[in-house]
Amino acid sequence: MPEGEKIPVAANVLGTIGTVLWCVQLAPQIWHNWRNKKTDGLPASMMFLWALCAVPFGVYMILQQVPIPIQIQPQMFGSLCTICWAQILYYSQGYSLRKAVLAGVLAAALFGGSEALFILTLRIPYSKGITWPALLFGIIAAVLVTIGLIPPYFELWKRQGRVIGISWFFLSMDTLGALFSLLALAAEGTFDILGGIVYIVVLLLELGIFTSHLIWRFRFRELREAAKTSGMSIDEFLERSSNNRGFGVGRLQNGGEEGPTVIEARKCPDDSVTAHGSSEAVPG
């Protein structure tokens, strides 16, 4: 936006909403991990790349001298990502609590120290009009954010499109944060190409995750109905059914190559649930 031109109220409001959402988006995920005591389906690489991207993102924002709330955004984001990453190390990677906490603290110290060093190093040349290093850091941050959303797609592929381990509150807040931030850019009258590309890519990739799970729910609606009839969750039903030889769906959902057996659940006199195509019953 040209210097001295007032930012439209709509752009300020939309940008503030997007910033707030992106500052606290991972709080529901951290709570989800702690409550369930597991992080299956939440890639460690995703959280680490996002924590790492907070370094160039913070450098770019601070050198650009954007409003203080937006400068705080990368710091909040990076801190929450580091906590999530440490949780994954503890719940899924076999780290002891002490080692996971130590890894998180060391990573946070390394990221914070690196960001401070880059800012102090680049602030003087930036004040003299040498701005390309700041732009380079902005590009690196954009690339890391985008790459961080690729690992969840490998998890989707392993589970035939099903999303597990990712909090829907987190994903919804992240998607809405990208949407409101994108709308704020559009409302300014001028369009920041770099920021716009980041928001569009994040929006599309996260909508892809939503769509993948909706397709899974449609494809395996018989499976969900069978689990509901048996009084078990999907995970409990799949774990129970995978122990029965010939039950194709259990093998499929755990990464097997067999096609799913068409399930038609029904209650039997002995309170067991059977699946057509399988000669064995799954106890209710």
What is the topological layout?
Elements: H1 9-24, H2 27-36, H3 44-63, H4 68-91, H5 97-127, H6 132-148, H7 151-158, H8 168-187, H9 193-219, H10 221-230, H11 234-242, H12 248-253, E1 272-274, E2 281-283
Antiparallel strand pairs: 1-2
Helix pairs in contact: 1-4, 1-8, 2-4, 3-4, 3-5, 3-6, 4-5, 6-9, 8-9, 10-11
Highlighted features:
284 residues, mainly alpha, 2 domains, two-stranded antiparallel ribbon, 12 helices, 70% helix, globular, disordered C terminus
Explain what you see.
With 284 residues, this protein is mainly alpha-helical. The protein folds into two domains: 211 residues, no CATH class; 63 residues, no CATH class. It has a two-stranded antiparallel ribbon with strand order 1-2. Strand 1 and strand 2 form a beta hairpin. The longest helix is centred in the middle third of the chain and has 31 residues. It holds the Pfam family PQ-loop. It is a multi-pass membrane protein. Its main location: membrane.
